[in-house]
Amino acid sequence: MTMKPKLDVQVCDHCNLRCAGCLHFAPLAEKRFLDLEEYEHDLEQLVAIEGVAGYFDAIVLMGGEPLLHPRIVDVMRSTRHFLPNEYVSLCTNGLLLRRMNDEFWNTLVDCAIELAVSPYPIHMDYVGLAEFARSKGVKTFFTDDITGEGEGKERFMRLALDPRGECDPVRSFTSCPFGGCYLQLARGSIWPCQVAAHHGSLARRCRFHMHGSPDDALSLGSIVSTDNIEAFRRRPHLMCRHCNNDALTVAPWQQSKLEAGEWLA
Prior knowledge:
The longest helix is centred in the first third of the chain and has 12 residues, at about 35-45. The chain has 8 helices and 10 strands. By secondary structure, it is an alpha/beta fold.
């Protein structure tokens, strides 16, 4: 909780790389793109919050795979328009980077958005890809492995969600690997983590429902100052009772078989 929170924006739900146990449930997701008008409305409300300037460590445009969005350039421009002084990065698996046009690369440069490339073990020349991106004048770096075992995506954290919701929400919260630092901007609200914000794809495909409460999300329209966000991210939520964090595992990266056991205990 001493760390400043990041704010993730899921630009699209689906992905072109099917990772087993994806923390955003992208292999299970239907094709859905972030609606630009709704996003700009959310940003307008976000910047009206007292103290929000400099509050977030980073604004991260991600997915799914954000390069699939047909208006990714407009998403980047809108983000920078409303947040002119914030650090913004675009997180991608890199598969589509060499196909992107000059407008895409120029927008990254003009909007001072850094490119975060997640290197997966898929026999791809990620070093060459990063050099290609830098040749376009774009600041580029590789993302860290969330398991804490170095750069890259050789290993994946596996959730162990409890369909019955019988976990102690306080224990789940205090042992959460996301630690209130990966807030999500989605559907007019701020959510405490990826699981809470995006579990709908899991619910549709695996008949799993996280039974929570309205307090599991913080409506942008209800936020007066960042003090409200701080209080929100520092407390357990009813949805936390579905997270059996004592049973989290780490597994080698592989492609998803779309089996519920990749996410459920």
